[in-house]
């Protein structure tokens, strides 16, 4: 029996280092090739030994697919292709192809040039890796080889993020990567066909969370920023350069314009500038509102937000600064935090230790920093919450669901919810664990227009969720199947219609009189036999060319029956419908012999 095998090399009951190996109908595909940001040794990369213990990776893998440019989905790609050794095609969307090498190079500089790490890929390796990339358009069916095809769908989340359908013959798998089912200020909501795959592999980052209204979160964020600026404080917003930075920049730009505020807003130079350039370049990937107003005004050309210079951090008066990275663990956001943390007027967001309530932080050189600034945590995550994940599963209608990119306990909760509410089998393998799903091959059958019209004429409206039973003749020609009406089949095949008639002789031994026995038999037949039985008898009697007259007694064994009985048995208007026939009608539908 055909089967689909799935092995997470990363992101199995874990967040980060996304990498899933899928075997479908003899084809092997690797979905994402991410890096775990929490490790500084070989554990940061997926364990590629699961792919094959011997031989070249290229001989085993048919292709690699990258869903989007975040490092936990693409960070290990140069290591995999240039150091482990993979020469095959790598598929991703055009925005991902443009932005991915920028983030890889930026991370390489931090890891190698600043931290001095060994066994890491070089700048040249990043360039060589990107030469293997094949860029795809949304909804474009790409033929990887004669049998394997892939198709990209819009995922929201970040610029260029895509879900991918992998199809071999009648078997298919859909991989979501990271996605967002709610539109935001610069991107639309994820969208995919009702493709009914054998398996849906979905992220489950927020498997147990149902977020409140986005509008409420935005209002709360703007209120807190406005209050801090009004009291003369400085606001530090640590963000990652791509995605949420643009979302919050558009939010503040719109608010500043509406409220006519004068406090300066800055963003880190470098990455964010490049990011905004690519958002302008790939404007068709943004939401409908931005695309509509693009000619009059590009939303990524900010009037109130300027590039940040380090010297600005010491300027007096209120200001708002977007600085990278998002978790305050290094870079410009950490430097600004050190300067502003001691003033209670100021406000900052995120920072794991600070959020846990720690107010004294030990910095480099055992320097202790006292945090007096106001700290707020606000979630503007671009991942689907539990409601969004359930919505996508219902929309795609898969035979099975496999959860990745989430915590084990949260996955277990969502797994039960999917199985109970949607009646779909759900799996949540750990890293290195293989899930095998047997598949039932589906055979496509074309249905003739005449047959469909006949069904519609019965007044039954089609329902996509309910299977419909169609009666017809199945014709196979040149390995193609068609279901047509029997009349059309006879005409196409040049055959004449044949009729088969069946007779049955029943012997009843009853001591009662003939008339009494006949009436009892008739009452039983009338009560239990379906109407089609009587219709069939009537039709075959008419075709036989003989009948019982309405005032004529039946011939044969029932000659004692009164003429009233003959009239009563006439369930058809045709007088030849008499259900109990004598010897004259043996060639019709049936014969009943009653011994005298």
Summarize the structure.
The chain is built from 18 helices and 27 strands. The chain has 596 residues and is α/β, with parallel strands linked by helices. The radius of gyration is 37 Å and the shape is elongated.
Characteristics of this structure?
Rossmann fold, Metallo-beta-lactamase, Chain A, alpha/beta, seven-stranded mixed β-sheet, 3 domains, 18 helices, single chain, 596 residues, elongated
CATH architecture of the largest domain: 4-Layer Sandwich
Oligomer: single chain
Cα-atom Rg, whole angstroms? 37 Å
**Average pLDDT figure:** 82
Number of strands: 27
CATH class of the largest domain: Alpha Beta
Distance between the termini: 63 Å
Strand fraction equals: 15-25%
- Structure classification: alpha/beta
Cα shape: elongated
Note poorly predicted spans: 538-596
Keywords: Cytoplasm, Hydrolase, Metal-binding, Nucleus, Zinc
Cofactor: Zn(2+)
Domain Beta-Casp: 245-354
Main location: cytoplasm
SSE map:
Layout: E1 3-10, E2 19-24, E3 27-31, H1 57-60, E4 63-65, H2 71-74, H3 77-85, E5 90-93, H4 94-114, H5 123-130, E6 133-136, E7 141-143, E8 148-154, E9 162-168, E10 171-175, E11 199-203, H6 214-230, E12 234-238, H7 244-259, E13 265-267, H8 271-281, H9 288-293, E14 305-307, E15 319-323, H10 331-340, E16 347-349, H11 352-355, E17 360-362, E18 368-370, E19 374-376, H12 386-396, E20 400-404, H13 408-421, E21 425-427, E22 435-438, E23 445-447, H14 449-457, E24 473-477, E25 480-484, H15 486-493, E26 505-507, H16 514-528, H17 531-544, H18 563-568, E27 591-593
Parallel strand pairs: 3-4, 4-5, 5-6, 10-11, 11-20, 12-15, 12-16, 13-14, 13-15, 16-19, 20-21, 23-25, 26-27
Antiparallel strand pairs: 1-2, 1-22, 2-3, 7-8, 8-9, 9-10, 17-18, 24-25
């Amino acid at each position: 029996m055909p089967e689909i095998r799935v092995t997470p090399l990363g992101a199995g009951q874990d967040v980060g280092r996304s990498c899933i190996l899928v075997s479908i109908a003899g084809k092997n595909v690797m979905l994402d090739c991410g890096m775990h940001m929490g490790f500084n040794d070989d554990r940061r990369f997926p364990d590629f030994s699961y792919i094959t213990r011997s031989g070249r990776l290229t001989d085993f893998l048919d292709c690699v697919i990258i869903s989007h440019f975040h490092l936990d989905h693409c960070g290990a790609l140069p290591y995999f292709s240039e150091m482990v050794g993979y020469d095959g095609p790598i598929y991703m969307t055009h925005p991902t192809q443009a932005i991915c090498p920028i983030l890889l190079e930026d991370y390489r500089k931090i890891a190698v040039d600043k931290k001095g790490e060994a066994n890491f890929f070089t700048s040249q390796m990043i360039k060589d890796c990107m030469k293997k990339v094949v860029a795809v358009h949304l909804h474009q069916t790409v033929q990887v080889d004669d049998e394997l095809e892939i198709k990209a769908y819009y995922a929201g989340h970040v610029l260029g993020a895509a879900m991918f359908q992998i199809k071999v013959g009648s078997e298919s798998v859909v991989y979501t990567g990271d996605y967002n089912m709610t539109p935001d200020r610069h991107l639309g909501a994820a969208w995919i066909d009702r493709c009914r795959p054998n398996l849906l592999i979905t992220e489950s980052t927020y498997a147990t969370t149902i977020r409140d209204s986005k509008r409420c979160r935005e209002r709360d964020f703007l209120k807190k920023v406005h209050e801090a600026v009004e009291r003369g404080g400085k606001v530090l917003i640590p963000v990652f350069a791509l995605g949420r930075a643009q979302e919050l920049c558009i939010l503040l730009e719109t608010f500043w314009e509406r409220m006519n505020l004068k406090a300066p807003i800055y963003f880190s130079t470098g990455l964010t500038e490049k990011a905004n350039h690519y958002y302008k370049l790939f404007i068709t990937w943004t939401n409908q509102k931005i695309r509509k107003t693009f000619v009059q005004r590009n939303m990524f050309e900010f009037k109130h937000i300027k590039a940040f210079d380090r010297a600005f951090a010491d300027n007096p008066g209120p200001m708002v600064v977007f600085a990278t990275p998002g978790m305050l663990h290094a870079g410009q956001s950490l430097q600004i935090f050190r300067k502003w943390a001691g003033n209670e007027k100021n406000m900052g967001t995120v920072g794991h230790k600070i959020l846990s309530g720690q107010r004294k932080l030990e910095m480099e050189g055992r320097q202790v920093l006292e945090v007096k600034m106001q700290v707020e945590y606000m979630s503007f995550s671009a991942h689907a919450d539990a409601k969004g994940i359930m919505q996508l599963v219902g929309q795609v209608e898969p035979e099975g669901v496999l959860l990745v990119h989430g915590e084990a306990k949260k996955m277990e909760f969502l797994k039960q919810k999917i199985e109970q509410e949607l009646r779909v089998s759900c799996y949540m393998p750990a890293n290195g664990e293989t899930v095998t799903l047997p598949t039932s091959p589906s055979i496509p059958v074309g249905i003739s227009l005449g047959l469909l019209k006949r069904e519609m004429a019965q007044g039954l409206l089609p329902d996509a969720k309910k299977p419909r039973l169609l009666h017809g003749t199945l014709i196979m020609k040149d390995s193609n199947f068609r279901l047509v009406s029997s009349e059309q089949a006879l005409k196409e095949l040049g055959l004449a219609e044949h009729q088969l008639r069946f007779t049955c002789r029943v012997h009843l031994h009853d001591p009662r009189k003939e008339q009494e026995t006949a009436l009892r038999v008739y009452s039983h037949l009338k009560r239990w036999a379906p109407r089609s039985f009587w219709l069939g008898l009537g039709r075959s009697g008419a075709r036989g060319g003989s009948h019982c007259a309405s005032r004529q007694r039946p011939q044969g064994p029932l000659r004692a029956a009164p003429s009233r009985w003959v009239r009563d048995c006439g369930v058809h208007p045709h007088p030849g419908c008499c259900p109990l026939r004598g010897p004259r009608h043996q060639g019709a539908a049936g014969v009943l012999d009653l011994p005298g």
